[in-house]
């Protein structure tokens, strides 16, 4: 058995060495990026932001926004007697970007590398509720 170099190591030192935290990679292997003091969840999102900023600078698009929340609502009938219907916010979809083109059409964009079921559900809900179709890059 080879123990050369381990003579001075105690059991408590071995135990504490095994507890050292190693940075765990993100679930989808994206790398967070900071540009102009703004934090982005991925390189793809940051690169697309730079492209949109350039398009806004040249006047091709306007009203450029990041992290735009959209309320996802459902009807709530609490008063059965009068059949009053009101909408309650059930969830929120946060789009990466929103802007208007020269023709005045609104674009809602999400920089996705991986589509999950919740994302797909929220996109469909937003389309059915407000007629907004989410574009993916």
Compose a concise summary of this entry.
With 137 residues, the chain is of the alpha+beta class.
Describe the protein's architecture and organization:
With 137 residues, the protein is of the alpha+beta class. It has one domain (28-136): Trna Endonuclease, Chain: A, domain 1. It has three helices and six strands, in the order αββαβββαβ. The chain has helices at residues 11-18, 43-57, 117-130, and strands spanning 33-35, 38-40, 61-79, 84-101, 106-110, 134-136. A four-stranded mixed beta sheet has the order 3-4-5-6. A two-stranded antiparallel sheet has the order 1-2. β5, α3 and β6 form a beta-alpha-beta unit. The longest helix is centred in the middle third of the chain and has 15 residues, at 43-57. The radius of gyration is 24 Å and the shape is flat.
């Amino acid at each position: 058995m080879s123990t050369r170099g381990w003579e001075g190591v105690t059991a408590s030192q071995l135990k504490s060495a095994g507890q050292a935290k190693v940075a765990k990679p993100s679930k989808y292997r994206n790398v967070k990026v900071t540009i102009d003091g703004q934090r982005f969840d991925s390189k793809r999102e940051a690169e697309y932001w730079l492209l949109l900023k350039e398009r806004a600078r040249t006047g091709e698009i306007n009203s450029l926004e990041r992290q735009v929340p959209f309320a996802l609502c459902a009807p709530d009938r609490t008063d059965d007697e009068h059949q009053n219907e009101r909408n309650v916010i059930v969830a929120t979809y946060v789009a990466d970007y929103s802007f208007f083109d020269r023709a005045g059409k609104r674009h809602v964009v999400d920089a996705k590398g991986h589509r999950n079921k919740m994302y797909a559900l929220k996109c469909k809900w937003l389309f059915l509720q407000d007629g907004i179709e989410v574009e993916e890059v």
